[in-house]
């Protein structure tokens, strides 16, 4: 089975930086995704890492260490609209199937 | 506009009354999948399809059926819904042509079974 852990809730201040961690234990690891989900809405793609290192995309960056089974999502210059749940998902190589396994999500609240 | 369309958005039904949630994508994606999302449990995969006429079970398939007769459509069928199937359902599609095989999700269907 797949085991994906991330904190349940975090709070941060507008304009600050926040780091959301994700640890995983899987067999057949083949990539890690971060999604943003506002309440009652569909998840939207933020980032994808398959190799070790940092991927930067505007205010959002994502880091992966395959040897440690660890990733983080870094959000800079926080805005109120960043209040949402952030989902860590691992892709597992299952005979060609493209299956993503999701953590339970981290609900981020940005306060003024 | 590239999208995944689910219908209906909201549905209240009674125990045992068969229902179908439709999902359609216009991106010519090979892969489609259904998830349910429950508080504290996250997104859990119900069924997936790697292409037309190819479907397989995810982690929580009990009580659900799917079919993939055409590439663009992947309906979710509940033959005899029960209250424990009350949930928020998402359909998703992807393709190796899409960076990292990332999913595009539909807007969701909130199902209540009473």
Describe this structure as you would to a colleague.
The complex is a heterodimer of chains A (112) and B (114). By secondary structure, chain A is mainly β. Helix content of chain A is 0%, strand content 63%. Chain A is built from no helices and 11 strands. Chain A has strands at residues 3-5, 9-13, 18-25, 29-37, 44-49, 53-57, 60-65, 70-75, 84-94, 97-102, 106-111. In chain A, the strands form 2 sheets. In chain A, strands 2, 4, 5, 9, 10 and 11 form a 6-stranded mixed sheet that branches. Chain A has a 5-stranded antiparallel sheet with strand order 1-3-8-7-6, with no helix packed on it. The radius of gyration of chain A is 14 Å and the shape is globular. Chain B is mainly β and 114 residues long. Chain B contains no helices and 11 strands. In chain B, a hairpin with a 2-residue loop joins strand 5 (42-51) and strand 6 (54-57). Chain B is globular and about 40 Å long. The model of chain B has no long low-confidence stretch (mean pLDDT 94). The chains are: A mainly beta (112), B mainly beta (114). The A-B interface holds A 31, 33, 40-45, 48, 50, 87, 89, 91, 96-105 and B 31, 33, 35, 40-45, 48, 50, 56, 58, 88, 90, 94, 96, 99-108, 110.
What percentage of residues of chain B falls in helices of 4 or more residues?
A: under 10%
Largest interface: A-B, 23 and 28 residues
- Average of pLDDT of chain A: 93
Find the count of extended strands of chain A (DSSP E, 2+ residues): 11
As residue ranges, the low-confidence spans of chain B are: none
Largest sheet of chain A: 6 strands, mixed
Topology pattern of chain A, helix = H, strand = E = EEEEEEEEEEE
Task: Calculate Rg of chain B over CA atoms.
Answer: 13 Å
Secondary structure tally, helices of chain A: 0
Radius of gyration of chain A: 14 Å
Assess the beta-strand content of chain A as a share of residues. Answer: over 45%
Low-pLDDT regions of chain A:
none
- Whole-Å distance between the termini of chain B? 36 Å
**How does the major sheet of chain B shape up?**
7 strands, mixed
- Residue-averaged pLDDT of chain B: 94
Reading the helices and strands of chain B in chain order gives EEEEEEEEEEE
Number of helices of chain B: 0
| Structural class label of chain A | mainly beta
Number of beta-strand segments of chain B: 11
Q: Helix/strand-derived class of chain B?
A: mainly beta
Q: Helicity range of the residues of chain A?
A: under 10%
């Amino acid at each position: 089975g797949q085991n994906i852990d991330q904190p349940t809730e975090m709070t941060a201040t507008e304009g600050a930086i926040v780091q959301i961690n994700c640890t995983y234990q899987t067999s057949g690891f083949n990539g890690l995704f971060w999604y943003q989900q506002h309440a009652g809405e569909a998840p939207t793609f933020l980032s994808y890492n398959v190799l070790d290192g940092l991927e930067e995309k505007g205010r959002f960056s994502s880091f992966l260490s395959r040897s440690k089974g660890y990733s983080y999502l870094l959000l800079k210059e926080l805005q109120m609209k960043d209040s949402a749940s952030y989902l860590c998902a691992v892709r597992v190589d299952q005979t060609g199937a493209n299956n993503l396994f999701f953590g339970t999500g981290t609900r981020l609240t940005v306060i003024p | 506009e590239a999208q995944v369309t689910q219908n209906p958005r909201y549905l209240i039904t009674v125990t045992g009354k068969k229902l179908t949630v439709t999902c359609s994508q216009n991106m010519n994606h090979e892969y489609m999948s259904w998830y349910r999302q429950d508080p504290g449990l996250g997104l859990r995969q119900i069924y997936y399809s790697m292409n037309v006429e190819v479907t397989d079970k995810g982690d929580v398939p009990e009580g659900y059926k799917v079919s993939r007769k055409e590439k663009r459509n992947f309906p979710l069928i509940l033959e005899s819904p029960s209250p424990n199937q009350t949930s928020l359902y998402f359909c998703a599609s992807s393709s190796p042509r899409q960076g990292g095989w990332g999913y595009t999700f539909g807007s969701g269907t909130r199902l209540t079974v009473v």
